[in-house]
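Example complex used in Figure S2.
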Amino acid sequence: MTLIADALLIAAAGFVIISIGVLYRAVKGPTMQDRVIAVNVVGSNTVVIAALIAAATDTPGALDIALVYALLNFLMSIAISKFTVERGGVL
Amino acid sequence: MVTLTEVVVLALLAGGLFFGFVAAVGLVRLPDLYTRAHSASKSDTLGAVLTLAAAAIALDTGADTLKLALLIVFMFITNPTAAHAIARAAADQGIEPWTAADDADGAGNGDEGAAGGGSNAEGDGAVADGGDRR
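Predicted assembly (225 residues):
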């Protein structure tokens, strides 16, 4: 069981490193939609990291956090794309 | 002794990490918003689903595995939908897709280093509202 827990934690660390790489596009992306896509990818990686930590350390409460984070991530993308089309900006 | 569960979990984790890495590389290296949305929607969804399946197998059966199955279904539906909505909003705002002619024009100001021999320079000139406005 400890082999599985170690592998899950190593995979979580790998997803953290991948998210840091994706942050390059969120900072530099020339248009706003590039940044939204990059933040969306970072958010889905965060959901995966929360689920991996929940499975590795046997804390099932983190799974609820992952579910709510996935919902909020999807809502962020849809809201920003809808606001940019209908109003030309978020505010 | 390595059991069957450990083998399956390790294989799913390796696949998930591979596709997550492919999504990140595509998101950083591809020249256009639409190609980046392509990378983010497909590769990232597959990587997330494989890794969540590994976590679902690693957990014992019960309510936690049910929550992870719900999370897998939800990611499988909403992640490509979000990328599609963002790409469609970009198309409504008049952002032009990248073409091979933009590559010839924008090869001079590539900022990614010369690893690709100049043929993979960033096509920032393809964006309708100018280049780098950070």
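The two ends of chain A are 50 Å apart (CA to CA). Residues 2-86 of chain A form one domain.
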